[in-house]
Design brief:
The chain is an alpha+beta fold. The protein has two domains: 179 residues, no CATH class; 72 residues, PDZ domain (Pdz3 Domain). 51% of the residues lie in helices and 19% in strands. The strands form four sheets. A four-stranded antiparallel sheet has the order 5-4-6-7. A hairpin with a 2-residue loop joins strand 8 and strand 9. Helix 2 crosses helix 8. The protein is elongated, with a radius of gyration of 25 Å. The protein starts with a helix and ends with a helix.
Length: 342
């Protein structure tokens, strides 16, 4: 059930993205012909008798699309019918293109604002205890649990998380004895820290406490967090392109689902924060100046505005088609690698 919830939640972010395109296209007088979540052969289709719009769920839920009349320059009536995409002013076409990414940006902000303002975010505290336990680490194998207090390490009292890190770090690969308190009961725990480049680690995060911000502060926090995440991601992307960041690697749909499942298992707050992150990634990825993406179409529109000439429709269609299949192939390669090689 948790896997289903994760996949549906990720699908909702795609639905929101496409709703941005869909809503603004209709608002600006463009005829929407099809709204699809996923690609290839549909497993569900329904056509509205009132609007004649077809809604469908594709057999492969890797994204989605909104088919607007005239978006394909070779479509009949693309440059004649008043409700065609091609017959609208460049600024209107541009708004429709960026509406999807903007919808994801607003969604990311809204999630963060709601979590910080209504629920609160976990904030690390410097206490000698256990926060989140990382799976398949010495801490999990020793049955340490979140909210455990660590009173002593090898008989030495510890008061802060920094004390815990210091003592554990000095004993890579060597058994240490912890005195742990859980729900008023004290007991010893034997644990062997992993040797990570000569430093002992057991796989725990510091304990946390929930901090809830006032409405105004929550709004500002959400804005700053979005800016920070986008800035860090752009830096990582540049490092990937220039090969200067060796610890950055592309992630495909299977990897995203796996990470989302991990956050879901960590609790509602962690999962919602991750959904906000993925929504930001959809915003950023779709605005990259690559043909077949919203950013690539925006570049073509800027060319039209600057030169007052449209991009040749054959070039437009060919470039976007080629890059679409290249992107699908890249996603498929990354996904296969994640599924079969980890």
């Amino acid at each position: 059930m948790s896997w289903i919830i994760v996949i549906i939640s990720l699908g909702i972010l795609v639905v929101i993205h496409e709703l941005g395109h869909y809503w603004l296209a209709r608002l600006l007088g463009m005829k929407v012909m099809k709204y699809s979540v996923g690609f290839f052969k549909p497993i569900f289709t329904w056509t509205s008798k009132k609007t004649d719009i077809t809604y469908q769920l594709g057999s492969i839920p890797l994204g989605g699309y909104v088919q607007v009349k005239g978006m394909n320059p070779f479509e009949e009536g693309a440059f004649e019918d008043p409700d065609s995409y091609q017959m609208k002013a460049p600024w209107k076409r541009g708004l429709v293109i960026v509406a999807g990414p903007i919808a994801n940006l607003l969604t990311a902000w809204l999630i963060l604002f709601s979590v910080v303002g209504l629920v609160g975010l976990p904030n690390s505290v410097d206490k000698a205890g256990v926060g989140q336990v990382i799976p398949e680490t010495p801490a999990q194998k020793a049955n340490l649990q979140e909210n455990d207090r660590i009173l002593q390490i090898n008989g030495t009292p510890v008061a802060t998380f920094e004390d815990v890190v210091s003592h554990i770090g000095k004993n890579p690969g060597t058994k240490v004895m912890l005195l742990v308190e859980r729900e008023g009961r004290r007991f010893p725990v034997a644990i062997v820290p992993e040797d990570v480049d000569g430093v002992g680690k057991i796989g725990i995060y510091p304990p946390t406490e929930t901090v809830r911000l006032p409405t105004g502060e929550a709004a500002v926090f959400a804005v700053n967090k979005c800016i920070s995440v986008l800035s860090d991601t752009l830096g990582g992307l540049w490092g990937l392109i220039t090969r200067t960041a060796k610890d950055v690697k592309p992630v495909g749909p299977p990897g995203i689902v796996k990470m989302a499942k991990t956050q879901y298992d960590s609790g509602a707050t962690s999962f919602l924060a991750f959904m906000s992150y993925i929504s930001l990634m959809l915003f950023l990825f779709n605005l990259l100046p690559i043909p077949a993406l919203d950013g690539g179409r925006t570049v073509f529109l800027l060319y039209e505005v600057i030169t007052r000439n449209r991009v040749n429709k054959k070039v437009d269609a060919a470039v976007n088609t080629v890059f679409f299949f290249l992107l699908m192939a890249l996603i498929a390669i990354i996904s296969i690698k994640e599924i079969f090689f980890g």
